[in-house]
């Protein structure tokens, strides 16, 4: 890391809200052309990783909720 770039947390250390916030920030910066060409590829790669993480967390939560619903149905 250089003094100009803040330390970027590891993808797996982020919760859903943090990942979504960072993804939103990256997308806004891309829309406003705040990245130079050299940095753009890196940031798009990071955004793709964040999207994968968010999808995984959504899928895991969906499975967890479905399991709870099934348990409740079995109790009836």
Short description:
The chain has 76 residues and is mainly alpha-helical.
Keywords:
76 residues; mainly alpha
Kindly report how far apart the N and C termini lie: 56 Å
Low-confidence stretches are none
Helix content: over 70%
Q: Give a quick account of the main beta sheet: strands, pairing sense, barrel closure.
A: none
- Tell me, briefly, the overall form: elongated
Overall number of structural domains: 1
Give the tally of β-strands.
0
Structural class: mainly alpha
How much of the sequence is in beta strands? under 5%
The radius of gyration over CA amounts to 17 Å
How many distinct helices?
2
SSE pattern, N- to C-terminal: HH
Please, what is the average pLDDT?
90
Structure overview:
With 76 residues, the protein is mainly alpha-helical. The protein has one domain. Helix content is 72%, strand content 0%. The protein has 2 helices and no strands. It has helices spanning 16-31, 37-75. The chain is elongated and about 60 Å long. The N and C termini lie far apart (56 Å). The model has no long low-confidence stretch (mean pLDDT 90).
Architecture blueprint of SSEs:
Blueprint: H1 16-31, H2 37-75
Helix pairs in contact: 1-2
């Amino acid at each position: 890391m250089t003094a100009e770039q803040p330390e970027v947390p590891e993808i797996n250390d982020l919760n859903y809200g943090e990942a979504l916030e960072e993804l939103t920030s990256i997308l806004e910066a891309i829309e406003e052309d705040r990245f130079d060409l050299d940095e753009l590829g890196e940031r798009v790669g990071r955004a793709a990783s964040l999207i994968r993480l968010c999808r995984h967390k959504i899928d895991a939560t969906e499975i967890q909720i479905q399991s709870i619903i099934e348990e409740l149905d079995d109790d009836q």
